Amino acid sequence: MIIGYARVSTDDQSLDSQTDALSVAGAEKVFADKISGSRRTRPEMDRMLEQLRDGDVVTVTKYDRLARSLKDLLEIVEAIRARGAGFRSLAEDIDTTTPAGRLVFHVFASIAQFERERISERTREGLVSARNRGRVGGRPPALSAVQKKEVRRMRDEEQRAIAEIARLFKVSERTVRRA
Fold first, then answer.
1. Which of 14, 19, 141, 171 has its CA 20 to 30 A from that of 134?
2. 165: buried, middle or exposed (CB in 10 Å: 19+, 13-18, 0-12)?
């Protein structure tokens, strides 16, 4: 039996394109999760793995739908193989039911892991470069330096209520306490 697995990371994303492609590929049953791929515990994937039988083929549209890291991908595909089932990815044309397919699977998985690490590296390098040019990421401060000084004066010298100061400056009470 061909068993499909689809996953999107957030509730506002749609599974439709994946489930349509899996149906065209002959999937008789499709399991679908709306959860981040970095989460190892995924209810529908776990249910799918429990129901696998000898000869089944787990099919995904792209192998990153199954796992986000090479380690997880290899572990999941090994769990599928241990149940006597195969793994197939439509986009990468990988089918682990053959020796050549298993080789291609390992090569592609390694390349994907390398690319994810390079993206992460480039992001870190970009942040360092921006910081060196004086650009700092993150949320802008709720209060300017002048406003912080005034908040501290009102809070410490005038002994005004924190809630009142927060309302005046349109910030949270916690921001007033930290000023």
1. 171
2. buried
Please tell me the distance from the alpha carbon of residue 6 to that of residue 31, in angstroms, as a whole number: 6
- Mean pLDDT, rounded, for 84-101: 88
**More confident of the two residues 172 and 107:** 172
- CA distance readout (Å), 38 to 65, 77, 110, 137: 10, 16, 17, 24
Mean pLDDT of 130-146: 89
Cβ proximity of 51 and 85 under 8 Å:
no
Separation CA 30–CA 60 (nearest Å) = 10
Q: Of the candidates 35, 34, 80, which has an alpha carbon nearest to the alpha carbon of residue 54?
A: 80
Which residue of the set 9, 23, 69, 110 is catalytic?
A: 9
Residue 144 has pLDDT above 80, yes or no: yes
Between the alpha carbon of residue 127 and those of residues 119, 137, 140, 168, the distances in Å are 12, 8, 16, 35
- 9 assigned to active site: yes
Task: Return d(Cα 44, Cα 50) in angstroms, integer.
Answer: 10
